[in-house]
Design a protein that fits this description.
Helix 3 runs parallel beside helix 5. The N and C termini lie far apart (91 Å). The protein is of the alpha+beta class. A hairpin with a 7-residue loop joins strand 7 and strand 8. A 4-stranded mixed beta sheet has the order 1-4-3-5. Strands 2-6-8-7 form a 4-stranded antiparallel beta sheet, sandwiched between helices. The protein has a single domain, classed as Hypothetical protein apc22750. Chain B (Translation Initiation Factor IF3).
């Protein structure tokens, strides 16, 4: 009796169809646990062990620069997640404006958590693919987000980059991921600055329309005031979402031991929406989504300033 049999492990499938079904089940189990399918893991491991032609989205110039830096492109890697967003009820607290027990500004925590979790899953799978490929870094990470008609209420997050390995690099437990281009990555290397990883956060806030804001905005149509006026409630919503996102970004960088964040990209969207159940309980307003993403870095303090040398021309 084999050791696996003694341990109660399932027997090997006896038919090709059974083997394929078992592999699909194992892949699904890994994905549900936050990992990658078995076929992707096997392909990347074989690439690391046996070598072969690499694939990447590097330009000719970027590939040549990698060669000059002693950085070997290994393969293109990807992380993806499609995430169902739960129901967002309204539990309003004291807001930044208005009085009484109901404020006009609150975070939609369900939406914020959904975006941050779907990003975490995608980046984790990107890191797993790079690790199986034997990489110590992933450069040029590109982010793609979206939604689909066939999955109402679901969001998708996809990250794609090129796994690389530096010559004489010390073994790393986890590959470093960065949005930096090859040229920016090269500039950091020359300056003795070490990329530590991607930091990112998304905050989603809801600004409830007050009577004044409804009149000023004309209920989403033509303004009812002849004078130019700022929609201060919506402005405050953008600022609140931004401050929370930047605070979380700084906290992540601090956890990595970073001295700063470079290449920060900021994006935000605003859309009108009614939230709540039933016609009498709905609140109309503006949903503000604020995204920030960048690369945390740290000075390695390895570059020593060389004192100037005196050169005397004795040719005369």
């Amino acid at each position: 009796m084999s050791r696996d049999s003694e341990a109660g492990a399932p027997r090997e499938p006896s038919t090709p169809d059974a083997a394929l079904e078992a592999e699909r089940a194992e892949s699904l189990r890994r994905v549900e646990a936050g990992g990658i399918p078995l076929t992707a893991e096997r392909r990347l491991k074989e690439l690391d062990e046996r070598g072969g032609s690499f694939t990447s989205d590097l330009s000719v110039g970027s590939f040549a620069l990698c060669h000059q830096l002693g950085v070997k492109p290994l393969t293109q890697v990807m992380g993806s997640s499609i995430y169902q967003v739960g129901y967002q009820g309204m539990q309003m607290g004291y807001g930044a404006f208005g009085g009484g027990t109901m404020g006009v500004l609150t975070e939609l925590r369900i939406l914020s958590d959904a975006w941050n979790e779907v990003r975490r899953l995608a980046l984790n799978r990107l890191e797993l693919e790079a690790r199986h490929a034997g990489a110590d870094a992933v450069i040029g990470v590109q982010v793609r987000t979206g939604s689909h008609d066939w999955a109402e209420g679901a969001i998708e997050y996809v990250v794609v980059g090129t796994a690389v390995r530096r010559k004489d690099a010390k073994p790393r437990e986890s590959p470093v991921m960065t949005e930096l281009s090859v040229s920016d990555y090269a500039n950091l290397q020359r300056a003795g600055i070490e990329p530590l990883g991607i930091v990112a956060w998304t905050s989603v806030f809801f600004v409830v329309d007050t009577a004044e804001m409804q009149m000023m905005s004309g209920f989403g149509g033509r303004a009812m005031f002849s004078e130019n006026q700022e929609l201060s409630g919506y402005t405050q919503g953008v600022y609140s979402a931004r401050e929370q996102a930047m605070e979380r970004l700084g906290f992540q960088a601090q956890q990595l031991g970073a001295s700063g964040i470079v290449g920060v990209r900021i994006g935000h969207t605003m859309r009108r929406q009614s939230i709540g159940g039933g016609m009498n309980n709905q609140l109309s307003g503006m949903v503000v989504t604020f995204d920030v993403i960048g690369t945390a870095v740290r000075d390695r303090n390895e570059i020593q300033q060389q004192p100037p040398k005196t050169t005397v021309d004795i040719s005369i």
